[in-house]
Design a protein that fits this description.
The radius of gyration is 28 Å and the shape is globular. 40% of the residues are buried. The chain is 40% helix and 14% strand. The chain is α/β, with parallel strands linked by helices. The longest helix has 28 residues. The protein binds pyridoxal-5'-phosphate. Pyridoxal-5'-phosphate (PLP) binds next to helix 7.
Length: 475
């Protein structure tokens, strides 16, 4: 692909005015070496002779002479009026031998049915968002273009605190809200602040693999605590024989992956365990805005009288993952440790998006978006459930579909979820194998089917394909 017109980045040419070699020869040699070494690639545009002469602080004559030689020898290629390029046909031995790693996009955010982490990107109010972002890109004052506050942009922290108090019953002040780039960044910060390498951290079994990876990277020894229809078995925490458990990572509103919400008695038991053992609870409230059978449950943090809960949230599901903005509500006594850990990670989150998000919240657009999305997701969920009922009866058993943006389903006895996933991928479909959510020795075979990122018709079609695939594996 040819680089576009316009001013080109000046190549690095080691020119030495004191050297005996004439300037034109140095420029010629510099280009030749850069091209042969693959620093300048076939098809890449090079600067005009005028621009290069000005940059090097030499007259145009030696530059013209060098370019002429390079054109003559076929290193460069140029037509009057359309610029000069590294010859696109220059395929020497070097190039043929080079191992090219294609920079293919990973397609992480594509609109695939069943993709678990995909919200309804087709429904996102782009025009309003674009206006807000453009407004701030134009008007951002100079003082906001420097390094930002590691805690986050204060008006955004205020907006988040108000939202969490109101919608999630989180007990917090803006001064406790730490803006971070994602839930996983939040976990990394919390680990750095709280978890000494080698200490035990309880995680849900099955649970969120991303959290396991983040906690293990921090040196935690994971204790896998089973989840049943009431959520994590808080009673099992005491039976572990862990002398000094440091923390438990939980998803009480909508357990990932099984979808249950933790009952009140389990919540009380979990909080009592934390208080008794001096442990911290890492509450990941990643998609609690969407609940289809009753009002969304309040956060566990709101029930905590002893400030043992670190509450983690993200805009990845309610807005879009590429925004990379999340937040942590930090107990006041831990604030300093969290700020130090946050500074050590990446200092602060991009200010432009924090400014835009502040307005998106303050103008009521966020609340409106969530309200609208509840209906959209309910319809998509219903379409998925109807498709599973119609095409997959007897093959796919829904475990829980009360909330969130995905449905866990069990596969028939003996059918490996990883094999089903491979067959689905061959048909252009992506889902998450449930077995990958287990960290212990025993796993169960099932699928997590996201329904947020595709419309009803697509979901119906995809469900029919899924049922055929599973039938083949079961037969
Ligand atoms: C349980 C859970 N927590 C957190 C996240 C990711 O959030 P973020 O994009 O903020 O890292 C996900 C994404 O799928 C998730 O399933």
């Amino acid at each position: 692909m040819r680089s576009t017109a316009g001013p080109q980045v000046l190549p690095h040419l080691p020119i030495d005015r004191e050297a005996r070699a004439p300037l034109y020869q140095q420029i010629y040699e510099g280009y030749r070496r850069a091209i042969l070494a693959g620093l300048l690639r076939p098809g890449q545009r090079v600067p005009s002779t005028r621009a290069l002469a000005a940059e090097l602080g030499v007259s145009r004559l030696p530059v013209l002479a060098a370019y002429e030689q390079l054109l003559h020898e076929g290193y460069l290629d140029g037509r009057r009026g359309s610029g000069t390029y590294v010859n696109a046909d220059l395929i020497g031995e070097r190039k043929r031998r080079r191992v090219v790693v294609p920079l293919a996009p990973r397609d992480e955010g594509g609109l695939h049915p069943f993709r678990v982490s995909a919200p309804a990107l087709d429904q996102f109010p782009r025009a309003a968002w674009a206006r807000i972002v453009a407004r701030h890109a134009h008007a951002m004052p100079a003082e906001l273009m420097g390094y930002g506050d590691p805690a986050g942009y204060v008006p955004l922290r205020e907006q988040i605190a108000e939202y969490l108090r109101t919608a999630r019953a989180v007990r917090c002040e803006a001064s406790q809200v730490l803006v971070v780039s994602s839930s996983l960044a939040a976990l990394r910060i919390a680990s750095a602040a709280l978890i000494a390498p080698g200490t035990s951290v309880a995680v849900e079994e099955p649970g969120y693999p991303g959290a396991r990876t983040a906690l293990e990277a921090a040196g935690a020894n994971l204790a896998h605590i089973p989840v049943d229809e009431e959520g994590i078995d808080s009673g099992a925490l005491g039976d572990l024989g862990i002398s000094a458990p440091s923390a438990a990572y939980v998803t009480p509103s909508h357990q990932y992956p099984l979808g249950v919400s933790m009952t009140a008695s389990r919540r009380v038991a979990l909080l009592a365990w934390a208080e008794r053992t001096g442990s911290w609870i890492l509450e990941d409230d990643y998609d609690s805005e969407y609940r289809y059978v009753s009002r969304p449950l309040g956060a566990l943090q709101g029930m905590d009288a002893h400030e043992r809960v670190i509450y983690i949230g993200t805009f990845s599901k309610v807005l879009f993952p590429a925004l990379r903005i999340g937040y942590v509500v930090v107990p006041p006594r831990l604030w300093e440790a969290f700020i130090r850990a946050r500074e050590a990670l990446d200092i602060f989150s991009p200010t432009l998006y924090q400014l835009a998000l502040t307005d998106f919240l303050a103008e009521g657009r966020f609340a409106r978006h969530i309200r609208r999305m509840r209906d959209v997701y309910r319809r998509r969920r219903d379409a998925l459930l109807a498709g599973l009922e119609q095409h997959g009866r007897g093959l796919l058993t829904v475990h829980n579909s009360d909330a969130g943006l995905h449905v866990p389903v069990w596969l028939p006895e003996g059918v490996a979820d990883t094999a089903v996933i491979t067959s689905l991928e061959q048909r252009g479909l992506t889902a998450t194998p449930l077995s990958t959510c287990y960290g212990g020795t025993e796993t169960r075979s099932g699928l997590l089917l996201g329904f947020g990122g595709a419309d009803e018709r697509t979901l119906d079609r995809a469900t029919r394909i899924l049922a055929n695939v599973v039938a083949q594996h079961a037969g």
